[in-house]
Specification:
This protein is mainly alpha-helical and about 375 residues long. It contains twelve helices and no strands. Helices cover about 90% and strands about 0% of the residues. It is globular.
C-alpha cells in the first residue's frame, strides 16, 4: 500500500513537471507574464528579506558587543539606517532633480544639433554617392526621430512611475524587515522544525547548511558590491568635475549605480555620459570616455577583487548569462539581482551534484 502511494505521488510530480514544460514550450509569453507578476507581487517581501539579511549582521554585533535588548538594537540600527537614507536623499536628490530638469530643458538644443549633423551628413553623401544617400534616406530618419523623442519622454514618465512604486515597495520592505528581525529566532526555529518534520535528519541538516552558505554569499556580495559602487560613484563624480563635464553629479550617480551590474553595467554607464557630454563639447566627451574606461579598469582589475574577492564563485560566462536572462525577464531589477541569485542556485546544484556523486562513489574520481 505504501509503495502504491509513493508511485502515485511520483506520477503526479512527473505529470506536473511535463505540464509545466509543455506550457513553457507552447506559451512562453504566458509563463514570462506569470513570473513577472509573481515577482512584482513578492517584491516588498523580497526587499524585506534582503534588508533583514543585511542589517542582521549589524544587529547581532551590537547586541553581543553592548548587551542590548532586541528593541534597543532595532531602534539604533533602523534610526541609523533610515537617517543615512534621508540624509543622502536630502543632499543628493535636489541636485540630481535639478540636473535632470536642466537636461530636459536643453533637449531641443540637442535635437537642433542632430538636425544640423544629419543635414551635413546628407549633403556629404549626395556629393559622394547619390545611391548611398537614397538608400540611407536621412530625411526619412529626421521625420521619424521626433516620434522617438516623444516615446523617450513617455518612457521617462513610466520610469518615474516605476521609481515611485519601487519606493513604496522599499518602505513596505523596511516594515517587513523590522518584524523579521524582531522575531528572527522564532522564524529560524519554525523553519528548522518544518525541515526536520518533512525530511530525513541528514537532508534537513544539509538544507540548513545550504541556506547558511547562501546567506553568507548574499551578504558578502551585496555589502561588498555596494561599497565598491559607492567608491566608484564618488570617484566618477570627482573625476567628471575635474574634467569639466556637465551634470557631473547626475552622471556619477548613474555610473555608480549601474556599476552594480558586472561587465554590462560599466558600458551602460559609459554610453549616456559620453552622449550627453558630446553635445556639450566633443573633446570633453572623449576625455570622459577615456576617464570612465580607466576607472572601470581600475575597478575590475584592483578595487573590485580587493573588496569582493571571489564572493560569488561563478565564472564570467554564467555571470553574463544570468544578467541576460534576468534582464529579459525582470528588466533592470533582474539585472541587478541576477548574479547573487545565480550564485545561490549554484550552491544548491553543487551540493546536489556532490551528494549524487558520493552515493555513486564517483566524487573522488570527478
Amino acid at each position: 500500500m505504501e509503495l502504491n502511494r509513493q508511485l502515485i505521488w511520483k506520477l503526479i510530480v512527473i505529470g506536473l513537471i511535463f505540464l509545466v514544460l509543455w506550457r513553457v514550450i507552447s506559451e512562453p509569453d504566458t509563463i514570462s507574464r506569470v513570473l513577472q507578476y509573481t515577482f512584482q507581487l513578492l517584491t516588498p517581501v523580497i526587499m524585506g528579506i534582503a534588508i533583514a539579511l543585511l542589517l542582521n549582521t549589524v544587529l547581532s554585533y551590537m547586541e553581543e558587543r553592548f548587551a542590548l535588548k532586541r528593541y534597543q538594537g532595532l531602534l539604533i540600527v533602523y534610526v541609523t539606517f533610515i537617517g543615512l537614507l534621508v540624509i543622502s536623499a536630502v543632499t543628493l536628490f535636489p541636485r540630481i532633480y535639478s540636473s535632470v530638469s536642466s537636461l530636459i530643458e536643453e533637449l531641443p538644443f540637442y535635437i537642433r544639433q542632430i538636425d544640423g549633423f544629419l543635414g551635413q551628413l546628407n549633403t556629404f553623401l549626395h556629393d559622394y554617392n547619390e545611391t548611398i544617400a537614397q538608400t540611407l534616406d536621412f530625411k526619412r530618419f529626421e521625420e521619424r526621430y521626433s516620434g522617438w523623442v516623444e516615446a523617450a519622454v513617455l518612457s521617462s514618465v513610466s520610469y518615474v512611475s516605476s521609481f515611485t512604486m519601487t519606493l513604496i515597495n522599499f518602505l513596505i520592505g523596511i516594515v517587513i524587515s523590522i518584524y523579521l528581525l524582531k522575531d528572527k529566532e522564532v522564524f529560524a526555529r519554525m523553519f528548522k522544525r518544518l525541515l526536520y518534520a518533512m525530511f530525513p535528519v541528514a537532508t534537513a541538516k544539509t538544507t540548513i547548511d545550504i541556506f547558511q552558505e547562501m546567506d553568507y554569499i548574499f551578504k558578502r556580495y551585496i555589502i561588498g558590491k555596494s561599497l565598491d559602487c559607492l567608491i566608484i560613484g564618488v570617484m566618477a563624480v570627482v573625476g567628471l568635475l575635474v574634467i569639466g563635464a556637465p551634470y557631473a553629479l547626475l552622471l556619477g550617480v548613474i555610473i555608480g549605480i549601474l556599476n552594480f551590474i558586472p561587465y554590462v553595467g560599466p558600458l551602460l554607464g559609459m554610453i549616456p555620459a559620453f552622449i550627453i557630454t558630446y553635445f556639450y563639447d566633443p573633446f570633453t566627451a572623449v576625455l570622459v570616455l577615456v576617464f570612465i574606461f580607466l576607472l572601470q579598469q581600475f575597478d575590475g582589475l584592483w578595487l573590485g577583487p580587493k573588496i569582493l574577492g571571489d564572493s560569488v564563485g561563478i565564472t564570467p560566462f554564467w555571470v553574463i548569462t544570468s544578467i541576460i536572462i534576468g534582464g529579459s525577464l525582470f528588466g533592470l531589477v533582474g539585472m541587478f539581482v541576477s548574479v547573487p541569485v545565480t550564485a545561490m542556485i549554484q550552491v544548491i546544484l553543487s551540493r546536489l551534484i556532490d551528494y549524487r556523486l558520493t552515493r555513486k562513489n564517483l566524487n573522488e574520481l570527478l
